[in-house]
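User: hey, got a sec? need F-box/LRR-repeat protein 15-like leucin rich repeat domain-containing protein folded
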Amino acid sequence: MYLLKRRKAEFSGDLTNTCIQWRKFKKVICGKYKPHAPFLLQLYLSSCKVSNNTLYVIAELCPNLQYLKIRWCCGLSNKVISKIAQICHLESLDVSRITRIKNIKRFGKYKYMKDITLCKIAYLSPNLQYLKLGAPIITDISLRAVAHSCINLRHLKLNYNENITDVSIIEIAQNCPYLEYLGLWRSNITDASLKQIAKLCSKLHTLRLIYCPKITDKGIYVIASACSNMQKYKLEDCEEITDISVKKIAQSNPNLKYLNFVGCHLVSDESICNIVQSCPKLEQLYLEGYNITDVSMSALANLYNLQKLDIEDCEKVSTNAIITLQNKNPTLNIISCLIKMKDKGMPIYVYNINETSKKSSERMKGNRYSPDCPFRMLINGSSNSGKTNMEINLMLGKKLKCMFNGKKGDRYIRNDDLVLVAKHSEPKWELVKNAYQIFANAPKPYREDVTFKTIVPDKIPDITKFSPERSTVVIFKDLCAEPKKVQVRIIPYFISGQHQNVSPIYVSQKYTQTPKIICENISHLCLFQGSGSRDDICRIVRQYTDDPKKASKIIDKHLRDRNFVVFDFTKAIDNPLAVRLGWDTPLKLDE
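Assistant: Yep! Here you go:
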């Protein structure tokens, strides 16, 4: 009964077997409290396995249902939504990716909404105010029907739809004067649509345009000028946006709380300085581009309400500028930032969460700077020096980020299987586990035949158990203090692992704590802050320079600045990439 008093029901997962609340809900609406079922106003289903008939029965028993959200559900068809609209007077509809596959943990063929279904819904729901669809195959035909039937529409969000043009959006502007939110992803609208929105929809406060390549400064300029209530702009990958429109946004929209210019490479420091001066209420800022430098970081220190800053791929922003900004604003969440790179060779991302045969070798090359499988790597550094972050970057590369942006992307190390040997599992490795599951279950061209598993030190398998037909990376995480019997199991991975196509990575805090036989059989050494004394570094670099003391000072300074140094023993001593700052920048030890 209490479910109906709340007038809202929300469920996720397998409703038939595991959801106790769902079983209670069915008893309530079908049992002695059935007369109270019409009280239900909101129904949210996420990642559920539910049938068309079940949803239709709920609609019949709850005819006053106004808010319906269905995301990532299987067992449904889009036609049932139009049937619900016949019974219920919907005011809010959110439908994203429903499918008839049985296993909701797999990717499959989604049943996207068609024009005929959306036309019926529009005709039957004249009170519709909120519409969000993941419907890449609908066209201007059905959206024009929405414009003419749903004149009270306030929120319109369409994900990934190249069929939407000025034809329908202009009619939305002409017929829906109360529009407050417009969100389009990969549409073909032009500045003409935005000019009509600006002219006729003065209540607009949020504009979300992702990869709308025909949008330019002219369209954003008129929106900023005419819509004084604007609080959020998301102009991701709208590559024609420049400082001209951003300057107008700063001048005309002082109440801004959210700005996203990711992929707008023509936006420069000048724009950010204008935003800082004119928009003191800004809380979230997302940037990306070649024209953002330390100047912007210095200016942002004066934006006291800023809570979240994403400066991914801002290559000219230095590590020192980021650290300085963080010190001035300790509560600012700086995420996905680039760690001091000279070029785009191998970007390193910050994952900010709670804490063989010749043919096979070619297949496993993920990035020209990363090690080729099979390799043998040693990583040393103190806690919180960035070791784990770098390890995860090697395993994930750009792939996870690119997939969410509709691109393929690559992992830096393209192994088949990843094994983590550790006493304790860190939250960051849960991210890797989930990412590998996504890679393995994704549709083409994203799918990869990869696996991830975690084992404890006592269960380290014999090296001969691995198949040379698959490339395996085994990470031994902080095991230097484990008993001798564990070390004995690890050593064969560094002696003969290459014969089984196995690439071992040994991770410890101090270089001197690593078993000597492992140090003598590595192909790559990565040093982080706290990895050893200057004398330890001096012994390592002696083979690369005539002045090891000077070289050790250079390396020590970089480590103290929270960079990391890579020694690639597969390269000739005079090769520029034999010693590197990060993975992709040659480090000269004699300067």
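Quick note: The first strand starts at residue 8 and ends at 13. Let me know if you need anything else on F-box/LRR-repeat protein 15-like leucin rich repeat domain-containing protein.
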